[in-house]
Amino acid sequence: MSQEAPTAHFERVSDIDAESPTLIEGLPGLGMVASIAVDQITSQLDLDYHGNIQSDALPPLAAFNEGRIRDAVRVYAGREPSVMTLQSDVPIPPNAIQSLSECVYRDLADEFDRAIFLVGAQAESEDQIGAVSGVATSDEMASALTDAGISLAEESGAIGGVTGGLVVDCYHNDIPAAVLIVRCDPRLPDPSAAQAVIENALEPLVEFDIDTKELEEQAEKIREQKQQIARQLQQMQQQQEGEPTQTRTMFQ
User: Fold this and answer.
1) Nearest to 103 by CA among 5, 9, 6
2) Nearest to 38 by CA among 175, 167, 163
3) Radius of gyration of the CA atoms of the chain, in A
4) Which Pfam families match (predicted)?
5) How far apart are CA 162 and CA 29, in angstroms?
6) pLDDT in tens, the chain (252 residues)
7) Most buried among 1, 9, 147, 170, by the most CB within 10 A?
8) What is the reported pTM?
9) Which residues contact 79 (CB under 8 A, 6 or more apart)?
10) CB within 8 Å of 198: residues ≥ 6 apart
11) Nearest Cα to Cα of residue 177 among 166, 186, 190, 188
């Protein structure tokens, strides 16, 4: 008897009154760059809690912050600037990727105008940390990247994990989207790479102003906060790479 495929659904807890918002994805990945950057954006812009994504494929755990339980996968939104963020306190396991991607398209795509995804890529040297290149799903988004001073990625490659699933859904459903590939230290959560992608890519692309001094001043505290998630993510990736049916990808 075959198992049923995992499902996911969005639980909306508040409405948003925003004009053509940009969705910025901040799910755990290499260097925890996306997670650190989007945490800072959500906090700095004082975005409102919009809802959460529930899936029977997510780990059975209770996330908490500042003494309060909260849902692990959350969406925030605000009007000025018009932004939505997608965040998670847990790595997204491989068997949850498809259902989560489908949930974002089915339940949330009508609420945002375009999407920006963040992925970490291993820096070859210390000088390369924070370097950003972009990949677009359309000519419109490619122009937006170059207008913001972001170089398009010259190499060929693949984007794996949950970010890859989300980008593919945007591409096939004509939702303008871009992926920012950020060079980072793959060994530890990297606040400096998160700071660089905010200042050099997200600020000009989304046209907001984020104070990133906290990422520099509290780098060690941020690393400690993200370290457990980073270890869990690394364990999942090692398990995947050990399976012969999995394809090794360049960016995750």
Assistant:
1) 9
2) 163
3) 17
4) PAC2
5) 9
6) 456 778 899 999 998 887 889 999 999 999 999 999 999 999 999 999 999 999 988 877 777 877 888 889 999 999 989 999 999 998 898 899 999 999 999 999 999 999 999 999 999 998 999 999 999 999 999 999 999 999 999 888 899 889 999 999 999 999 999 999 999 998 889 999 999 999 999 999 999 999 999 998 998 888 888 888 888 877 776 666 554 333 334 565
7) 170
8) 0.89
9) 16, 17, 18, 19
10) 37, 40, 41, 210, 212, 215
11) 166
Contact 109, 101 (CB under 8 A): no
Q: Tokens 């593919």 appear where?
A: 168
Domains of the chain with bracketed CATH: 8-211 (3.40.50.10900)
